[in-house]
Amino acid sequence: MIYIFSVLPLISAFLIFIFGRIKENISWIIATLCSFILLIFSFLTIFSNKVLVYTVGGWKIPFGICLVVDKFSSLFLIVINLITFLSLIYSFSYMKKYDRLYFYYILFCLLLAGLNGVVITGDLFNFFVFLEIASISSYALVAYKGGKEELEASFKYLILGSIGSSFILFGIAFIYGRLSTLNMADISNSLEFNYNKSSIIFALSLFIAGLSIKTALVPFHAWLADAHPAAPSPISSMLSGVVIKVLGVYGLSRLIFNIFGFNYNLSLILIFLGTLSMVVGVLLAIGQWDFKRLLAYHSISQIGYVVLGLGIGTPMGIVGGLFHLFNHSIFKSLLFLNAGAIEYNIKTKNLKEMGDLSKVMPITSNSSLIASLSIAGIPPFCGFWSKLFIILAAFMANLKLAGFLCILVSLITLASFLKVQKYAFLDKTNKNFQDIKEVPFSMVFSMSFLAILCILVGLFFPLVKDYIIEPASNVLINGKDYFKVILN
Amino acid sequence: MGIYFLCLVLFSLGVWCLFVKKNLIKKIIGLAITEYAINLFFILLGYKIGADAPILEKNNLSIVSVDPLPQALILTSIVIGLGIIAFSVSLVMRLYEKYKTFDINKINNLKG
Known about the structure:
The complex is a heterodimer of chains A (488) and B (112).
Chain A: H1 4-19, H2 24-44, E1 52-55, E2 66-69, H3 71-94, H4 101-120, H5 124-142, H6 148-179, H7 184-194, H8 198-215, H9 224-230, H10 233-260, H11 264-286, H12 291-312, H13 315-346, H14 362-376, H15 382-396, H16 400-426, H17 441-459, H18 461-477, H19 481-487
Antiparallel strand pairs in A: 1-2
Helix pairs in contact in A: 1-2, 1-4, 2-3, 2-4, 3-4, 3-10, 3-13, 3-17, 3-18, 4-5, 4-10, 5-6, 5-10, 6-8, 6-9, 7-19, 8-10, 9-10, 9-12, 10-12, 10-13, 11-12, 11-16, 12-13, 12-15, 12-16, 13-14, 13-15, 13-17, 13-18, 14-16, 14-17, 15-16, 15-17, 17-18
Chain B: H1 2-20, H2 24-45, H3 68-99
Helix pairs in contact in B: 1-2, 2-3
């Protein structure tokens, strides 16, 4: 049944294309229903005891395409489908001002199909195809508003994203030329004997370059700060909360840990890229006055934490990295939805033009406060625990500089979000906003749901860690056992 | 070996065109060239000189044939490339309507 994760969104995209023209709401209902069903299925995958494998067309594993859901995939499936469901609910009110909405929901469903497909596939070329489906639909969604800046951002994203995809395809070509197989488990098995061939090393470096462009790690980050703010807010929350993680971090960690095998050099590369993006991202963020652009730069910085945690490579570092990935998808989506709610009411993204919104928009204000405290790592909220794991892992692996920079970046993040809180919600000098109301119910629902989730994950972090994060990190820690499980 | 190296040269030319050229249409041509270079490379991986099409017949099982898998993969990759080119050209058309220029230096509302 695991093919349902990419087949159901494709079917609903088709249904929206037929029925969505009749009435605007039908397309929303189909898309939301689809993502709700997938959300339930993705929670069910946690409880299965073995790795789920489906062979497409009944072809045996090294020859045909196979779909694989292990615990690492199910962590990502939960993240994708949860954020998609809430973004779709939010879209109901937020997207009312645009016309021909069925195109929006079709693209959303295609994006969902691509993301789920990337996570469940066990075949390298199939991975590339799903990656392209997700990328092309996100290029189109970034340009959805159709203004000057949106088109420019989308073009920039398209050029850099396509270069990244070309690198990945080039890497796949090298792998196929050397090993004559495309099945991930079979590649992993063959690499036991051929690892040090120069073409394999070249392929690995092509993969790292391509996937770093998709992740927006620092030397490759130029597109992110334009593309994420330009999109409509539900899409920004999808892009920052899910797309960069699934296309980038999932691909990197699956390739490095399960297929090529983790070693000291790869660890150094990941630690260097992670620390660099962490520091540069936050330094670029602190001077921004555009709310969504500030959040986009913080995404670069927080993804740096995740990659650093994975790069340390000890069990604690990997748990911290994956936990931070899970938390970041919650609070960064929430912050983008808050930015969208403010934009919905007072039509601006500039922090200097906001002020004193805490009385008139209490739910937006409070949920944004919770998210800000989470991203800065204040104790009872979810971001604290994951950052603590990463910092402890860094010090235990004797990476004192990286651990120290983690703490410093966390402090700068706190300063940056105090600025946001002050100028957007607490500034008493600006009295122009007395007669506006709180945003409609669907937007309030998504924001308060995510805010409650921030607190709950923070308070019950051992439960989340034991049931979702640790099984996922065990897949990475066991590394090359991946192919033994699947080939048998 | 030399022919693979020429694919790499073609790929580098495409990437160079993407980064150096200021005209949006030329950038799209560069994108197309990178894609074609990779497609060519993939096809050449499965090619043998003097080999037949991979069709098995009952009384002749031992023919020398080219590898059919890269051809099937590249068919998919060409379709994806077509999608990207079509989308980027329509994007450039809309950009031209807004800015009245194809020059990337004059389209600079956003600062990276």
